[in-house]
Amino acid sequence: MSMSSRRYFAVWALALLMPVSWQAVAQSARAVPESNRASHASHAAAPLSPAERGALARAFVMKWGQYVQRVYDVPVGVWSKRMVSNFVAADAMNFRNALRRDTLEGALAELNGTGHRLVDAKVIDAYARQAPGTSGQAVAKALGDTARDLVFTAVPPCRIADTRVVGGAIAANSTRNFYALASAYTSQGGNATSCNVPIATAATAIAINVTAVTPTGAGYATVYPFATAQPLAASVNYTAGAIVNNSVVVGIPSPLLSNDFTIYTFAQSHYVIDIVGYFAPPQATPVQCMQTSVSTESIPAGLAAFYLAPACPTGYQSVSVGCWSVAGVYSTGSSLGFTRPDNRASCGWHNTTGAARDVNAAAVCCRVPGR
After folding, report:
1. Strands 304-308 and 346-351
2. Distance CA 321, CA 201 (A)
3. Which end of the chain has the least Cβ crowding within 10 Å, N or C?
4. Are 194 and 228 in contact (CB under 8 A)?
5. Mapping DSSP to helix (H, G, I), strand (E, B) and coil, where does residue 8 land?
6. ∠ at Cα 57 (53, 59), nearest 5°?
7. Helix axes 120-128, 104-111, angle to 10 degrees
8. Is 178 exposed, middle or buried (0-12, 13-18, 19+ CB in 10 A)?
9. Computed from CA positions of residues 146, 151, 153, 158, in that sequence, does the dihedral angle turn out positive or negative?
């Protein structure tokens, strides 16, 4: 497609002015007899004129725009603008095949040329089976994993940036970088303190409230880690003149770089950012252990029975139990109390003497205190 044709189509796609029914386009694609598939494929592969490409793009947006807005909370106009590059690049056959799909995943796969001969269910399954990290899906974490099993520390809400104070509004369709770990945030319009976030912490993500203040038009903002590719996602959606905020968790570079995160804004807008917490890797701590007091009970002559050791403090688990008595009173076993609601260890005794005897028990209790 020539540069002038691309410019013509891009202007059309943003305006979405050409009246066409996606049902008509899709039905015409379905109506090709099996015997004519080869000639149809040849025809479909022919280059599209800007007007034809525009008609197909409008049909695609009309078919899926409301679905995207309802499910992903992205305005139809915003989504259609994001799709322009896909509409420009799609070949004729893929474009027409995409309109026959019954799911958005299948339509996008067809449009991009990756859904050939795959039914919608297989396309969805292929997305789900992509290697971890290739499509942004979460990866299962292991307890204590320093990359994923992060510990959240809340801090009192504290302002780290305010473009009304420093820097001015962020221009439409542009980005600005910010830092989140510092001894003071005055250089970006924020607090003169560290906001209770230790600078030396190995934080790898932060929790912030992002407020868009009086944007000049409808649109969205995207918050993402500094020095990474901008994701196709909206952190805050807004309308012209509104004051709208949202809670955002965003990763920050590790090791630290000159900035921590970036904000992209579709429309010109001021932004106010408050930090409310941070995520850092778990830190190994020594196990804390203590011994309970000694319990002493009297076991009657000839009796076999279990007697409880003193209970562990709240948050501790019994890990061993000591049981002792006198000659003629034999141990029949012990239990650490894992299955007991009160978590109390116990000792079993058999008194073979001819009189009552004292039996003694004490538990060792431990806990992992965490950070």
Report:
1. antiparallel
2. 40
3. C
4. no
5. helix
6. 120
7. 90
8. buried
9. positive
Closest CA to 309 of 350, 356, 348: 348
pLDDT higher for 201 or 15? 201
- Would you state the structure tokens that stand for residue 8, as one six-digit string? 């013509």
For residues 194 and 275, the answer to whether their CB atoms sit within 8 Å is no
Closest by Cα among 217, 246, 252 to 234: 246
Token pair belonging to 51: 């007007």
Strand partners, 270: 213
- The dihedral built from the CA positions of residue 221, 224, 228 and 229, taken in this order, carries a sign that is negative
Q: What is the Cα–Cα distance from 157 to 209, expressed in whole angstroms?
A: 9
Q: What is the pLDDT of residues 33-60, one digit of tens each?
A: 444 434 444 444 567 888 888 888 889 9
DSSP state of 369: -
User: Rounded to the nearest 5°, which phi and psi values hold at 233?
Assistant: -155, 155
Strand ranges in the chain using DSSP code E only, listed in sequence order: 151-162, 174-178, 205-213, 219-225, 236-238, 243-251, 261-265, 270-280, 288-291, 295-299, 304-308, 317-324, 329-335, 346-351, 357-367
Written as six digits, the tokens of 367 are 């806990």
The angle subtended at Cα 88 by Cα 83 and Cα 92, nearest 5°, is 115
Question: Of the candidates 183, 137, 126, which has an alpha carbon nearest to the alpha carbon of residue 160?
Answer: 183
- pTM for the model stands at 0.47
For residues 195 and 275, is the Cβ–Cβ distance under 8 A?
Answer: yes
Q: Which uninterrupted H or E stretch holds 50?
A: helix 50-72
Q: Which amino acid is it at 281?
A: P
Return d(Cα 182, Cα 291) in angstroms, integer.
44
pLDDT digits (tens, 9 = 90+) for 299-319: 999 999 989 999 998 888 888
DSSP, collapsed to helix, strand or coil, labels residue 41 as helix
What interhelical angle do 22-30 and 50-72 show, nearest 10?
Answer: 110
Specify the long-range contacts of residues 33-38, CB closer than 8 Å, at least 24 apart.
none
Q: Which residues pair with 247 in a beta bridge?
A: 209
Joined together, the tokens standing for residue 108 give: 């996008």
CA dihedral for 36, 39, 43, 46, sign (positive or negative): positive
Question: What pLDDT was estimated at residue 22?
Answer: 39
